[in-house]
Amino acid sequence: MSIRASILAVDRVIPIKPWSVQVAPGMAGALQRQRLYWQISFFVLFVMAPVLDLFRYDLDAGHAIIFGLSWRLGLDDFFAGRIDATQAGLNILLRLFLPLLGGVALFIAVAWRWGRLYCGWLCPHFSVVETINRLMRHASGKPSVWEGKPLPARNPDGSPFRVDARWWLVTVPLAIIFALLWAVVLLTYLLAPAEVYGNLVHLAPTPNQGIFIGAGTVVLSLDFLLARHLFCRFGCAAGLFQSLAWMGNRDAMVIGFQRQRAAECVACYRKGAMGAAACEAVCPMRLKPRVAKNQMFTCTQCAQCVAACATVQSATGTLLTWVDHEAARQNEARVSLTGNTD
Ligand code: SF4
Ligand code: SF4
Q1: Does the first or last residue of the chain, that is N or C, have fewer Cβ atoms within 10 Å of its Cβ?
Q2: What is the mean pLDDT of the chain?
């Protein structure tokens, strides 16, 4: 099922209006499973795209390869005098700027309408963020080393969440393995994958390959262990531009909170429950999902807060769900990026 179909499926079960319609049991969990499949599939694509010649730039050959075809700008012909400057300019426009602008426009258009779906559903960096967050919470009780205090030792359904320092033995090596994998994969976007993997199999990367992989592994290990969600919040250009586009559209899809039912949030604090706002505890971007959109700038639409609330409020229906258009405009997006209000 596509992301859009998934969203529409949830919309059918959680209509934007009226607010009182309940979530079908298990729907939020099913959505999270779908999101996991999307993330795994995109991660595999990220690793395999250069190997299958779907997309890469070959520094040795001096041109890109897209779907197995050489993608040249035609500048060789210009320097050899076979085409004039006008033709060369046209080539650059048609083969570089237009495809690039088209891709960026599509990316931004999706973000304008649905927010940072790419981050929450596809991005291979965010997959690592969520994986390491989970493991770190098992190891220390906190999803990152920067978290002020441990999260409650319970899951949203009230079951115990076990914290055991031995999980560090998994967390740190896995972060370094992810970093090494990322560094190698990034190199295959620049050099022939057969050469890169062949050299690694024979433990004989060239000095430059060794430096790239070594430096990449160190930098990415530090990112994955210390700064992963900070990078998503403050350091990633793709995330920033998605957020800016999304904030500019007050009709865009956003996590909505049924404020008239706010008193029911006491369910999160009753005996045997999590003992804290479940929606806040599970958010991988460390946001508070019940606030208005202008305080949710970096929301990735992962919907983990929706799943957590649906679990807590399984009897009466979630207080959090995606809303858009009028419901988003009235309840969540009271101010646009440019300061416009109704
Ligand atoms: S919105 Fe849902 S998950 Fe968040 S505090 Fe209220 S009841 Fe708990
Ligand atoms: S607020 Fe909800 S949808 Fe947004 S990043 Fe946090 S958990 Fe995901």
Answers
A1: C
A2: 89
pLDDT, one tens digit per residue, over 262-273 is 999 999 999 989
Identify the residues whose C-beta falls under 6 Å from ligand 1.
Answer: 264-265, 267-268, 277-279, 290, 308-309, 312-313, 319-320
pLDDT of residue 229: 87
CA distance 308 to 278: 6
Across the chain, which distance is largest between two alpha carbons, in Å?
80
What phi, psi does 188 have (nearest 5°)?
A: -70, -15
Instruction: Calculate helix-pair angle for 98-114, 237-247, nearest 10 degrees.
Output: 60
- For the stretch 228-272, pLDDT in tens is 989 999 999 999 999 999 999 999 999 999 989 999 999 999 998
CA 92 to CA 95: how far, in whole Å? 5
Pocket test for ligand 1, best of 290, 311, 314, 321 (most atoms within 8 A of CB): 290
Residues with Cβ within 8 Å of 152's Cβ and at least 6 positions away in sequence, in order, are: 161, 274, 275, 276, 281
pLDDT tens column, 180-227:
999 999 999 999 999 999 999 999 999 999 999 999 999 999 999 999
Which ligand has the minimum distance to the alpha carbon of residue 278? 1
Pocket lining for ligand 2, CB < 6 angstroms: 255, 283, 285, 287, 289, 296, 299-305
Cα–Cα distance between 206 and 200 in angstroms, integer? 9
